[in-house]
């Protein structure tokens, strides 16, 4: 059994590495060791995520996909969550969620009986549904807040990161590739492309 941790943050401004120590400490409590960390800054609402795909491809039957919370793995709509879950299950991966003790049985017994498997699957589906609901609720409240601020003449929108834009322009002027700029500045290709157009 190899344990592979998946760490995700939605934006480059957030630290996807944040939970690394917690996950390491968690498996140490079961006398286990980590085989690898798969870390990315991608929205949990996207089905296609390079590092998650790599984790699934690298895994074999009986390996563990370890996550801090269910929303680190998915904020997908129900149908897309079912597609992702099917891929994970087809690969023979066992999902362990730190804050869902029901999923920890594989560490203590090494096996899961049919009742435990059914309960674990139910808990994962429930966690996935709650993560999606939380995402939709926050976006709805955000939209309501923006509408209220606009009505009161207080809404200014997201302000551009002028310093980052200048840094991107400098890198483009030096002939750096998009990949080099992404690695150096931690920004998205879309941001670089937007700055490149106005250059």
Name the CATH superfamily classification of the largest domain.
Answer: Resolvase, N-terminal catalytic domain
From N to C, what is the helix and strand string?
A: EHEHEHHEHHHHH
Instruction: Kindly state the percentage of residues in helix.
Output: 40-55%
Proportion in β-strands: 5-15%
Rg from Cα: 20 Å
| Total count of domains | 2
The general outline is globular
Task: Give the rounded overall mean pLDDT.
Answer: 86
- Class by SSE composition: alpha/beta
Oligomer: single chain
Counting DSSP E segments of at least 2 residues, the number of strands comes to 4
Q: Give the uncertain stretches in residue-range form.
A: none
Name the CATH architecture of the largest domain: 3-Layer(aba) Sandwich
Reported for the largest beta sheet, the result is: 4 strands, parallel
Count of runs of 4 or more consecutive helical residues: 9
For the largest sheet, list the strands in their spatial order: 2-1-3-4
**CATH topology-level fold name of the largest domain:** Rossmann fold
């Amino acid at each position: 059994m190899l344990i592979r941790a998946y760490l995700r943050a939605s934006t480059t401004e957030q630290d996807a590495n944040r939970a690394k120590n917690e996950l390491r400490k968690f498996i140490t409590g079961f006398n286990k060791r980590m085989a690898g960390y798969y870390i990315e800054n991608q929205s949990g609402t996207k089905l296609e995520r390079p590092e998650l795909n790599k984790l699934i491809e690298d895994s074999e039957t009986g390996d563990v996909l370890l996550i801090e919370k269910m929303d680190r793995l998915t904020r997908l709509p129900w149908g897309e969550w079912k597609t992702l879950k099917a891929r994970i299950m087809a690969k023979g991966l066992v999902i362990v969620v730190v804050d869902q003790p029901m999923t920890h049985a594989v560490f203590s017994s090494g096996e899961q009986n049919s009742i435990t498997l059914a309960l674990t699957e139910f808990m994962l589906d429930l966690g996935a549904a709650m993560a999606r609901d939380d995402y939709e609720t926050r976006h709805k409240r955000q939209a309501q807040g923006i509408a209220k601020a606009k009505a009161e003449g207080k809404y200014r929108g997201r302000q551009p990161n002028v310093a980052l834009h200048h840094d991107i322009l400098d890198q483009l002027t030096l002939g750096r590739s998009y990949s080099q700029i992404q690695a150096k500045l931690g920004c998205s290709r879309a941001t670089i492309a937007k700055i490149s157009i106005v250059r």
